[in-house]
Amino acid sequence: MPNTLAPEASTRERILAAVGFSILIPGLGHFVGERKGWAMFWFATCQITLVLGLILAGFSQLDYGRTFGFGETDLIFFLIPEGGNFLVTQLLARMYESMEYRGEYPDAFPLRNLGYILSGMSGVLAMFCAAHAAGQALAKGHPVRSDLVKKPITPGRAAVLTLLIPGLGHWKTGRKFKAILLGGSVLGLFLLGMALGDFADFNRQRHPYYWVGQMFMGVPGWLTSLVVSGRNFHAVLPYQDAGLLFTTSAGFFNVIVSLDAFHRAEHDWLSSGAKPKEVEA
User: Fold this and answer.
1) Distance of alpha carbon 170 from alpha carbon 184, whole angstroms
2) Is residue 179 within 8 Å of 260, Cβ to Cβ?
3) pLDDT digits (tens, 9 = 90+) for 56-85
4) Which of 28, 55, 58, 227 has the CB geometry, 3.0–4.6 Å to 21, for a possible disulfide?
């Protein structure tokens, strides 16, 4: 028996197209789906944060990337999380050089930590932009009933809300216990990890690989990084490695929480829908 709550085949195709276009350029998936206002918002937000972040850090983010290709031909510049904003990151990586490559010292860029956060935000937001575009495509292909007193939120919005505050996406879908349980667990794990690292572990220069996972904590993590920017270790910390593991795991767990929020919101949306709307290609 087919799953009556699954999107129609035509809608699934539009969802995949929206995600694919959004991965290339944030906002392109919305533009193709005729959501031009959202397209401009996502494009401007992701590109402004990327360019401003690179400038503030002297393009030193490029030192954390790696080029892949065949022979002497460079095909892809791999940089996470900025690479979530794929095509523009590829373009800028070929146009500019890191300040260290130019012979400048990091001290010449006192706002480089803010730059790291902004450019990293660009990539993370670009990934969540794809989820938002998928939700918009679902809403267009499967409109909800007009007689509903309270309209459910789209799956993409639920995912993005999780990036603002872990658990907020579940809260907005009415799953308050799960919101408190999941959000509290993620935030608690992150704060415990930060405490074990004396609140000095959210640092790209010292821990570039762990930093990638920490960035997926979303707004709470980004603000924490800015507040504790400049903190240094004054002694050997016995549980520093555990702290790094906890904070990084919290970021990746938040991705799982956002995916679950997307799935729950999708179920609610399809349950509240009328007959699937056939949209001409």
Assistant:
1) 12
2) no
3) 999 999 999 988 877 677 778 899 999 999
4) 28
